[in-house]
Design a protein that fits this description.
mainly beta, 12-stranded parallel β-sheet, 28 strands
């Protein structure tokens, strides 16, 4: 598996990488048309340099923060010298680090379209195709426009608004998104992560802990909700796959659906052809109109 920082080094100890785009050795080899047609006395060596702990990285680049590793160590060619390779790779990584890693700053916008890492940094707006790969600490983004993206959000990182096709890969701990517009997406939300509003075809893959979604409109979807996760309103063809613990849904309109509900899960109102597959524990449904359906209800009540 390829991780940051993936690189390829040749006989002249020239370092090749695509860290601004992707971390796959095969893409690097193809991009730079490197020769990879033999195993014995090969002309290139695949390398990976990964942080020992992302959270402990600081503004100053330190070699001691990184782990250096060669792929296919048993077939290393005779010309390859690890000390010389480390010197070459760390020189390139140090330069990339200064350009792509932001610490303890307050910015109106990104200094470039792609930033690999930000920690304890506040950014007012991501515009156009701007992307952040990883957000740590108390980092924040005020607004995300265009097809801007954040790969992962850890700790208490926050995004204020997401419009157009903006995306967030993962959100852990108490990360928050206030609003998501158009086809914005969040794949996973952990801890007490929250989303204020989700419009159009916005999607959330998974929600753990006490995660919450305020409103979901159009064809918005939530894959799974566990613990005390909540959805305020779901309109049009919005869907929730599974709800665990004391999860709740306020209203579900049109053809909205809930697959399963465990614990003391509740649904306030379900209109049109809304459906609930199964309800366990003390689950409740307030009102169901039109052709709404509940498959099974155990130890529960309908009011």
């Amino acid at each position: 598996m390829c991780n940051f920082f993936s690189a390829v080094i040749d006989r002249k100890y020239k370092v090749y990488h695509l860290a601004e785009e992707i971390d796959r050795h095969e893409d690097i080899i193809e991009k730079f048309k490197l020769k990879d047609n033999k195993l014995e006395d090969r002309d290139i060596v695949r390398l990976e340099v990964t942080p020992l702990n992302w959270n402990k990285l600081t503004k100053k680049f330190k070699i001691s923060d990184w782990n250096f590793k060669e792929d296919e160590q048993k077939t290393l060619p005779d010309w390859y010298k690890v000390k010389k390779a480390k010197e070459a790779v760390y020189e390139v990584l140090n330069k990339f680090y200064k350009e792509q890693f932001l610490f303890d700053q307050e910015l109106k916008e990104l200094p470039r379209n792609f930033v690999r890492f930000i920690k304890n940094t506040k950014i007012e707006t991501l515009k156009g195709n701007q992307k952040i790969k990883l957000m740590l600490g108390s980092s924040q983004v005020g607004k995300m426009w265009g097809s801007s993206q954040v790969g992962e959000m850890w700790d208490s990182s926050q995004v204020g608004e997401m419009s157009d096709s903006s995306q967030v890969g993962k959100m852990s701990d108490s990360s928050q998104v206030e609003e998501m517009w158009d086809s914005s997406q969040v794949e996973e939300m952990w801890g007490s992560s929250q989303v204020g509003k989700m419009l159009n075809s916005s999607q959330v893959g998974k929600m753990w802990g006490s995660s919450q979604v305020g409103e979901m409109w159009d064809s918005s979807q939530v894959g799974k909700m566990s613990d005390s996760s909540q959805v305020g309103e779901m309109l049009n063809s919005s869907q929730v796959g599974k709800m665990w613990g004391s999860s709740q849904v306020g209203k579900m309109l049109n053809s909205s659906q809930v697959g399963k509900m465990w614990g003391s899960s509740q649904v306030g109102e379900m209109l049109n052809s809304s459906q609930v597959g199964k309800m366990w524990g003390s689950s409740q449904v307030g009102e169901m109109w039109d052709s709404s359906q509940v498959g099974k209800m155990w130890d529960s009540t309908i009011t």
